[in-house]
């Protein structure tokens, strides 16, 4: 069967409409495919290239990207086959890995005849890591926008309460939350009634409006910290030394094409952590590519965009 060229495909949407024929979405998709020609799959990449799970509540989201011969990329995470070689060590929840027991295994990814094996290392799988003010609460405030320059992170704060910009001074933030106006912002007797939670939920008057939902990870992180007695961290808490955004580039074809992102932070103690849910995402060109709060890029109009993720003192980007 000979290959169809553009000159063979004279059934454009305009010509069909001119003949009084209804133009349906499947027909348009078929016409676009015939006109463009089918590009070959040239590479399959899994992000991150390795998975390290430490402690019981750790996790790692995985993104699978297909690269085609015409340079176009496609997020095939939902279409690819993901399987853990030793299910006694880790488990999968859609595209996110969770630890089960200590050991080493692999995540095997298959798509369109291509196979990729990602090493997985699990340590301290039975150890529950307590909520850290610097590692969990401060990033939760950042994700909710509480310590941004337009809110409590401004030089003078907002509505009588000030936080350091993007959490650059966590010790000062801890003092202002727990020692300044004692009993006003946190309630250790009834943590659920703490003002920082009620304002974030929008239950009481708040200039910033609702910042999180009662069933959200942000709310539960802060609530757990309060239930634990709102402890401060010791001097040995690891610091973020690097942040990676993956993939670092994508070429999306067509309005509505999507690309997931995963963001991983590396710490001074040698560990790493999936911080996708805590990173703040933004695009420098929403006309070309928009990005959601969860890190899902959606193509809009033809053009180029730089999608950024901010976590701790780092801002990293992906070219789209």
Number of strands: 19
Distance, first to last CA: 37 Å
Work out the radius of gyration.
Answer: 24 Å
Helix content: 10-25%
Largest sheet: 4 strands, mixed
Unreliable runs: 1-19, 26-36
Report the structural category.
alpha+beta
Question: How would you describe this protein?
Answer:
There is one protein chain. The protein has 320 residues and is of the alpha+beta class. It is built from six helices and 19 strands. The chain has helices at residues 13-18, 25-36, 133-144, 170-178, 195-201, 217-227, and strands at 41-47, 51-54, 60-61, 63-68, 73-75, 81-84, 90-93, 96-99, 103-111, 114-123, 240-246, 258-260, 262-267, 272-274, 280-283, 289-291, 296-299, 306-311, 314-319. It has a four-stranded mixed beta sheet with strand order 2-10-9-6, with no helix packed on it. Strand 7 and strand 8 form a beta hairpin. Helix 3 runs antiparallel to helix 6. The two termini are 37 Å apart.
Summarize this, please?
The chain has 320 residues and is of the alpha+beta class. It has six helices and 19 strands.
Question: What is this structure's SSE topology?
Answer:
Layout: H1 13-18, H2 25-36, E1 41-47, E2 51-54, E3 60-61, E4 63-68, E5 73-75, E6 81-84, E7 90-93, E8 96-99, E9 103-111, E10 114-123, H3 133-144, H4 170-178, H5 195-201, H6 217-227, E11 240-246, E12 258-260, E13 262-267, E14 272-274, E15 280-283, E16 289-291, E17 296-299, E18 306-311, E19 314-319
Helix pairs in contact: 3-6
């Amino acid at each position: 069967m000979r290959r169809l060229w553009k000159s063979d495909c004279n059934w454009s949407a305009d010509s069909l409409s001119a003949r009084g024929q209804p133009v349906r979405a499947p027909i348009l998709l078929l016409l676009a495919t015939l006109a463009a020609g089918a590009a070959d799959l040239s590479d399959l990449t899994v992000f991150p290239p390795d998975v390290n799970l430490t402690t019981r509540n750790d996790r790692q989201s995985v993104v699978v990207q297909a690269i085609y011969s015409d340079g176009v990329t496609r997020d095939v995470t939902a279409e690819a086959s993901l399987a853990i070689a030793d299910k006694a060590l880790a488990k999968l929840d859609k595209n996110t890995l969770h630890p089960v027991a200590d050991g080493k295994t692999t995540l095997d990814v298959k798509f369109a005849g291509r196979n990729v094996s990602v090493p997985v290392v699990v340590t301290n799988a039975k150890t529950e890591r307590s909520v850290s003010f610097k590692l969990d609460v401060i990033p939760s405030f950042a994700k909710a926008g509480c310590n941004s320059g337009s809110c409590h992170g401004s030089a003078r704060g907002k509505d009588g309460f000030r936080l350091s910009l993007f959490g650059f001074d966590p010790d000062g933030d801890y003092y202002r939350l727990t020692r300044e106006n004692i009993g006003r912002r946190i309630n250790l007797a009834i943590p659920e009634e703490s003002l920082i939670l009620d304002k974030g939920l929008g239950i009481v008057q708040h200039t910033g409006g609702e910042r999180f939902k009662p069933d959200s990870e942000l709310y539960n992180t802060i609530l757990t910290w309060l239930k634990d007695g709102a402890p401060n961290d010791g001097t040995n808490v690891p610091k973020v030394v690097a942040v990676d955004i993956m993939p670092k580039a994508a070429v999306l074809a067509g309005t509505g094409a999507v690309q997931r992102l995963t963001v991983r932070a590396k710490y001074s103690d040698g560990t790493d952590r999936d911080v996708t849910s805590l990173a703040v995402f933004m695009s420098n060109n929403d006309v070309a590519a928009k990005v959601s709060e969860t890190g899902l890029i959606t193509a809009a109009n033809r053009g180029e965009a730089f999608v950024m993720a901010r976590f701790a003192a780092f801002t990293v980007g992906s070219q789209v």
